[in-house]
Amino acid sequence: MRPTKSFWKDLPLPIIGLAPMDGYSDSAFRRVCKFVNPNIITVTEFTSADGIHFSPEKLRRRLSFHPDEQPVMAQIFGKNTETFVTATKFCEDMGFSGIDINMGCPSKRVVRSEHGVALRKKPDLAFELIEAVAKTTSLPVSVKTRLGWSCSDDLIGFAKGAQNAGADMICIHARTYQEPYNVPAQWEPVYALKEALSIPVLGNGGIISYQDGIEKCGPLDGFLIGQASFGNPWIFSPEGKPALFSDQLSVMLNHAKWLIEAKGNEVGTREIRKHLLSYVKGFPNAKNFRSALSRVGSYEEILSILEDICIA
Ligand SMILES: Cc1cc2nc3c(=O)[nH]c(=O)nc-3n(C[C@H](O)[C@H](O)[C@H](O)COP(=O)(O)O)c2cc1C
After folding, report:
1. Shortest-distance atom of ligand 1 to CA 45
2. Domain coordinates of the chain in residue numbers?
3. C-beta of 296 in contact with ligand 1 (< 6 A)
4. Which residue has a Cα nearest atom 7 of ligand 1?
5. pLDDT tens column, 157-200
6. CB contact burial 223-240 (16+ within 10 A = b; e otherwise)
7. What is the largest CA-CA distance in the chain?
8. Which residue, among 100, 126, 119, 109, has the nearest Cα to 18 in the 3D structure?
9. 22 lines ligand 1 (CB under 6 A)
10. Is the CB of 47 under 6 A from ligand 1?
11. Domain 7-236 class, CATH top level
12. pLDDT at position 65, please?
């Protein structure tokens, strides 16, 4: 059954999810995280609404997902209501469980085009986009944004506007536009926001373990984990990473298999390299295998190197 607008309110608390991350939270990694904890929610990498409007078939592959990932949300970005409407319908037809609107991306290219976090400077346009998406679909619509441009002064006003425009959930990356990804996140303004809204509020930023997520979540409805999941999908399990490398192997091999399945051998083996290097980071014998891992060209090669690490 298709999720409805009450989806976010009906989920058991705390809601835990993999943050959308371009270059990381693709179908294979989302599957891996769900394999570790089947109760999490996942979000696609951000995808251009204009791109979907003008070249839908080009983006179908980027957005494709496996049924095991559900509930998976499609994240779109842009600034044009017409292309947002097309993109919403396209994602609905693909079977996504919800539409997430990116109003937080700080990349130069995105901000220069007045997309992503730039919409915080144009709140009326931001609300128009949310309303257009919410009216187009019966799926739940969420918004992911930051504390603000340089401070969180307008956070509550912006989030209330988003709620009034039809957002069913809002996720706050607890850093401003001007703060890089590695500075400590400020969660207090997100807790204050929770008091002011009736829709669920998720927090995100700087979570380093499952327990840390539970603690930071505090009064919020849930949290998303980003960078700390690199090479560590076990972060989504209360038990954390298995102590033995041999017990981590099945997850790594699934990751490689699913990535190659989704993107083909050439792209899949190229893209798995950075994940493999993250997986073995800190492992005592890893340094002897790093250069081999950074050149893998087939699933069999990956299997053989990882098995060698196990017995080394
Ligand atoms: C490599 C990378 C790519 C990202 N891509 C996206 C994206 O496509 N959409 C989005 O909303 N946020 C994106 N983010 C932001 C993350 O979703 C998250 O808000 C941020 O990393 C903070 O969480 P963390 O401190 O747990 O990593 C990205 C972050 C990183 C590091």
Report:
1. 8
2. 7-236, 245-311
3. no
4. 21
5. 999 999 999 999 999 999 999 998 889 999 999 999 999 999 99
6. bbbbebbbbbbbbbeeee
7. 59
8. 100
9. yes
10. no
11. alpha beta
12. 97
Render pLDDT for 194-235 as a digit per residue (tens, 0 to 9): 999 999 999 999 999 999 999 999 999 999 999 999 999 999
Choosing from 16, 18, 21, 224 the residue with most ligand 1 atoms within 8 A of its CB, the one to mutate for a pocket test is 21
> Rounded to 5 degrees, what angle do the CA atoms 162, 46, 117 make?
45
CATH number assigned to the domain with residue range 245-311, chosen from the 4 options 1.10.1200, 3.40.50, 1.10.600, 2.60.40: 1.10.1200
Q: Could you tell me the pTM of the whole model? A: 0.97
Cite the beta strand spans of 78-157 per DSSP E: 98-103, 141-146
Of all protein residues, the one whose alpha carbon is nearest to atom 21 of ligand 1 is 226
Ligand 1 atom showing the smallest separation from residue 144 Cα: 11
Average pLDDT on 257-282 reads 96
